[in-house]
Amino acid sequence: MNYLQNIKHKADRANVSRLRFWIQLFTFLLIVYGGYFFIHIGSQVPTFACPYNQGSPGTCYLIAMQHGLHLTWSELVSYRGLAFFTGFLTFIGFFIVFNKAWCGFICPLGTLQDWITKLRYKIGIRFSRYDSASFQKLKKIKYVILVLLIAIPLGMSNSFFGLAPINHDMQSPFCQVCPGRTILPLASADTSQIFIDFTNKTTLVMSTLGILITALFFVGAFAKKRFFCFFCPMSALQFLFSRIGILRLTKNGSNCTRCGNCNRVCDVGIIGIAEDITSKYIVKDDCMMCFKCVEACPEDNCLDVRVFNAKIFSSTQEGFFKRYIQPNELSLKNEKNDER
Amino acid sequence: MMKDNQQTDRFQRVVKAASIHYDMEIGKTMAAITDDFPDNPAAMKYFYEKHRNLIRNDSNGKLPSKKTIATLCIHVPVELILAVGAIPVRSCAGAFTTEQLGAEFLPAKSCPMVKSTLGAISYNLLHGKVQPDLIINPATCDQKKKLGEINEEISEKFYLLEMPSTKDSEESREYWLQTVFKLIRKLESVTGNKLTAKSLKRAIQEVAHAQRLYRKFNHIRTSAPVILGKDALLVTNAFFFDDLESWSFHLNLLNEELENRMKTGFRVVNERAPRILLTGSPSVFPNMKMPLLVEELGGFIVSEEFCSSSRMLWDTVAVDEWHLYDMIPALADRYLKPSTCPNFSPNTDRIRKLLSAIEEYKIDGVVCQTFTGCQLYDMETRIIAKAMEQAGIQTLFVETDYSPEDIGQLTTRVEAFLHSLKHNRKKQLI
Amino acid sequence: MKLLLRAVLAFCILMMFSLQTGAQIWISNSAPKESSSKVALTGMHKLSTLRGKRGSTKVIQWLRSGSSVEESLFSQADSSAVLLLFDPQKQKVAVETIADHYSSAFVFNNTDEGFYNLFYLTEKVHNDTLLIACASREILNHSCRNGHAKELKYIPYKTFADAIPMQIVRERTKADDLHYFVTSGEFVTFRALYDGKPAEGVKMTLVSQKGWKKVLFTDDEGIASFEIIQDYFTNWNVFDVKKIHNYLLIAEKTFTETGIHQQKAFTHIKYVTTYSEAYLPAKTNYMSFVWGLIVFFITVIASSIAVYVYRNRRNVLKKHNYELPSKY
Question: pLDDT tens digit string along C156-209?
Fold first, then answer.
C-alpha cells in the first residue's frame, strides 16, 4: 500500500502536459499511418480515424453511423437495425475506456490544433477567447450538427412529414464538410480531397463548404486554442456517454477556492470547471480530458483523475509549484529547496 | 506643499514624539511575543529583529536607487511592482500611536486601521520610515476608498485602484482587467521602466516560490503544534515590508527547524489546548492583541483567515502562455477571483473557505474579531454566525480596536470561550 | 545488321499497309526512338529541334507513313517528291532533308514568328489512279522569351493554291493566338480547299493519338468539324497538364479524269492530304482541384484578415489608447 502511495505521490508531481505531447505524437502516427503497418482497429473508432486517408488503421464512427443509419424504418427494426445497434455498442465499448481523453490524447485533428497552438505560442501572437455569452450560444452548434448527421441519412431513406426523401448526394453529410476528410489524407500525400465537386448544386455547396471549413480550421486553430473541437459532433456524441466512462475527472468543490486557474489554462475555455462547486463529475461537454486543469490546480485533492473510483492523478500544492516554478528563473540563495 | 509642512516645527515635533511612542509600542508587543512564551523557534529571531526595527530607518537595507511603492491592500498585484523594478511595501498600519495621529483627519467612528494607516502616511511613520513614491489604494471598503482625498498634502501620491464590487460577473472581470492595465501604465510612468514579459515572469516565479514556502509552512503548523499563531502572524506580517528574497530564505530556515521539531515530536502547546481559527478584521503588527490574548490564555491558533496573512499569500497565479497577453489577465484573475474580502457581494467563498479550513485543520472554535467602525466585517459576522451554527462550531465574536483599554473585558470573554471549548472536547471524548 | 533487319521489316510492314489501305504519308513532330536523344522539345509548342552551332536551333520534322499517330512508320522521302517550305511571310525558304537508312527528316531554321507551312508532295499512278499525296503541317514558331512584338490575336491561315492542289486548313477561333493549344473536348474545324476554293464531299478522317477515328464529309463550304476526344487518363498525382498528344487528319477526294502521268495512263485522280497538330488535356480534368485550392486560400486570407481586424478592434488595450507592450 505504501508502495502504491509512493507511486501516486510521484504521479501527482508529474508533468502530464509533456507526457501528453509524446502520447499525442505516437497516437497521431498510429491513427494516420497505422494502416500501413497492418494495424486494423475496426470501423467504430471514436475519433477521427479518417478512412479517406489511406494510412488510417480504422474508420471514424461518425462515417459508420451515417452509413448505418441510411435505413428505412422497416429496415431499422430488422437485422440491419440490429447490425447498427451492435456497431453502436462497439463504439461505446471503445469510448468508455478512455472517455473524452479520446479527444485530448488521441484525436489527430486535436493534435494538429495543439501543434498549431504551439507554433503560435512560439511566435508570440496572443490567443482569443469567447466571452461567456458567445460560449453558451456556440456550444450548441455541435449538437445541431449531430442531430443533422443522424437525421439526414434517415431522411434519405424515409420521408419525413410527407416530404420527398433527401437527395442521395447528401450521403455522409458530415464527412463532406469535415476537415478531417481534407486534411488527414494530406498526411499520406494525397491531395485529391481538396476539390470542388461541380456535379450538381448539392455537391457544389457541400464540397465548397468542406473546403471553407478546412480553411477556417487552420485560421481558427491559430487564433483560438482547439477552435474546431468546439463544433465537433464527435465531442457531442461522446459527451452523451461520458458519465459511464472508466476514466473520470472529478472535483471536490469544498476544496475549491474558485481562483480560476483551471479555467485559465483550459484550451477549450470551460468556465464551469472553476465555477461549478457542486458537481462531482466535472467533465463538461467541451472537455477533452487533457488534464491541464488538474496540473494548474493549487489545492490538494480538488481535482482528481480516476480510473473507476481509484485516484491516479490529483491536484496537489506540491505538484503545482513543481510544474509552475522554473528554478532557472530564480536567483535565490536557497536553490536547494527546489530539489526537494 | 508637503515639504513645506514637513519643515514646520510642529510636524517635526509630532514625528519625533510619535516615533518614540511607536517604538515603545513595538517594544511592548515584542516583549509579550518573545518573553511570555517559552520554546520560541531559533529561526524566528530574524523575524523578531525585523519587527523590533520596524520604524528604524536602516532596518530594511533597501537599495536607494529603487523606487518604493506603498500598497494599502492585498488586491494590488505585487508582481507588477516587482516587475517594473520597484519595491512594494504594504503600508497598512497596526499601531495605536499612528491611529491617534490619523484621528485628526477622520471621523471618530472610523476603522482604526484606516486611521492608523493615514496617520502613518501623513507623518512618515511607515515601515522602515520609507517615503513611498506612489501609494496604491484599492477602492475596496468605503473608508479606504476616501483615504486619498482627506489629507491634501499627501493626496498627490495616492493612486486609486478601482475595484468592482462583485467578482462573479464577467463584466467585473473585464473591468478589473482594465484597471490592472491602467495600473501598469501608472507604474511604468512612475518608475520609468517598461513592463516586459521577462521581468513579469521572473516576478511571478519569485512570488510563487515564496508562496510555495508559505504553503509548506502552513502545512507544518496545521498538521503539528510546533509553532504558535503569534509567531506565524509575525512571519506573514514581515512579508509586508521585507525583501522577498531574504523573507523566503528565512522562512525556509524556519520550515527546516519546524520539520525537525515534528520529527522529534516537540510540541509548543499541550494536547488539550483548543485549536482556534482566527478570522475577521486583520491583525497587523503591532496590534497583536487578540492572537496574543488567545494564546496567553492557553488557546492554540492553528490558522488565520486574514487579509494580512493567508489571503495575501495563499492564492497562486497560473499562466498558460508566458507572454504578457496571458500573464497580465492571469495576474488580474489571481487578485480578484479567489479573494474572500467582504467588500465583494456575494462572498460565499469566505464561508466555504472557513468550513473547509475547520474540517481540514480540525478546528475546535473560531474567533472572529471586528474593528470598531469596520462595517463590512461587522455585517458579515451575522452570515458567519449562521454558517458556524449550522456546522456546529463554537464561535466568539469580538469587537475591538487598537487601544489597550478593553483588555480586561476581552480576557474574561476569551477565557470563558476557551474553557467552554475544553469542556466540550472532554464531552466528546467521553 | 540490326539496322538492315529493321529496314527490311519496316519495308515489309510498309508494303502491307500500302497494299491494304494505301498508306498515308504525313509529317510528324515526334522523333523516332533512336533519334529522340538528339532532339529537344523546345518552346511552348514543344517543337522538335536540333541544337546547331553556337546555340542556334533548327526545327526538325519527320516523314511518316501510316494512319496511326503512334504506330505509323518513319519512312524515307521519295526522290521525286516535292518539298516546300513557306515562312510566315509566305516566302519560299530552304529546307534540308536528312535521311538515314529508314527515315527522312526535314530540317529548317525558324527565325520568324508565326506559322511556317511545310508541304511534301508526291505524284504516282497506281492501278488506274493518279495519286497526288500531300503531307502538310503548320508549324507555329513563337517563344515568349523573344517578347510579344505582335499583338496577341489570331493569325489567319494561309492558302497556297498555286503550289498545292488540295490543301487542308484549320479554321482559327477567337482564342487562337500565339499561345493557343487545342484541348480535349474542344471542336476543331477544318476546311478543305481545292484550287483555293472550298471543296465539297471530301472524306475527312481524324485519328487521335490513341487511334480513335472519326470520318466526316465536308459540306458545301468545305467544312468538317471534329470534337477532339479525351484519351489521356492517368492518376491525379502524375497528371501532366501539358501532356502533348497529336491528332492526324486525312482528307481524300477522287475525281474522274483521264490522263497520262509519266507514261502511265490513269482514269481517276485521287488527292490525299494529311495534316497533323498537337492537343492538350482538357482543363476540366483538374479545374475542380484548382477551384478547391482557390476557395481554400481565399478563405484562409479573408478569415485571417477578419480575425485580425476583429481582434484589433476588440483589443482591450487599444480601446483605451494604452501604450502597452507590443504583444497585445
Answer: 899 998 889 999 999 998 888 888 889 999 999 999 999 989 999 999 999 999
Task: Provide the CATH number for the domain around residue A292.
Answer: 3.30.70
User: Are C233 and C315 in a shared domain?
Assistant: no
Q: Verify that A20 and A106 share a domain, yes or no.
A: yes
Min Cα separation A255/chain B (Å): 7
Residue A20 belongs to domain spanning: 16-238
Domain boundaries, chain B: 2-429
- Answer whether A207 touches C (CB < 8 Å): yes
ipTM, two decimals: 0.89
- Over the stretch A95-140, which tens digit does the pLDDT of each residue have? 999 999 999 999 999 999 999 999 999 998 889 888 888 899 999 9
Q: How far is A253 from chain B (nearest CA, A)?
A: 9
Together in a domain, A115 and A255: no
For residues C270 and C313, membership in a common domain is answered with no
Query: Parallel, antiparallel, or unpaired for β A303-307 and A247-251?
Result: antiparallel
CB pairs < 8 Å spanning B and C: 28
| Structural domain of C311 | 287-319
Q: How many CB pairs under 8 A join A and B?
A: 99
With 0-12 / 13-18 / 19 or more C-beta atoms within 10 angstroms meaning exposed / middle / buried, residue A167 is middle
* CB proximity under 8 Å: C 296-325 to B: 316-317, 320, 322-325
Choosing among B171, B181, B331, which should be mutated to test the C contact, i.e. which has the most C CBs within 10 A? Answer: B181
Distance CA A189, CA A36 (A): 13
Distance from the C289 Cα atom to the nearest Cα atom in chain A, whole angstroms: 4
Chain B touched by C327 (CB under 8 Å): yes
C325 belongs to a structural domain: no
Q: pLDDT (tens digit, 9 = 90+) per residue, B195-235?
A: 999 999 999 999 999 999 999 999 999 999 999 999 999 99
Residue B344 near residue B314 (C-beta atoms within 8 A): no
Q: For A185-188, which contacts have Cβ atoms below 8 Å and span 24 or more sequence positions?
A: A185/A50, A185/A52, A185/A53, A185/A54, A187/A32, A187/A33, A187/A53, A187/A55, A188/A32, A188/A33, A188/A53, A188/A54, A188/A55
Question: Which residues of chain B neighbour C314 with C-beta distances below 8 Å?
Answer: none
* Residue written as grid cell 471553407: A212
Considering the domain architecture, whether residues A127 and A252 belong to the same structural domain is answered as: no
Q: For chain C, what is the domain count?
A: 2
Query: Which residues on A lie below 8 Å from B209 (Cβ)?
Result: 321, 325, 330, 332, 337
The last residue of a domain, from among A205, A238, A271: A238
The verdict on A224 and A251 lying in the same domain is no
> How many domains would you assign to chain A?
2
Choose one of A207, A238, A269: the last residue of a domain.
A238
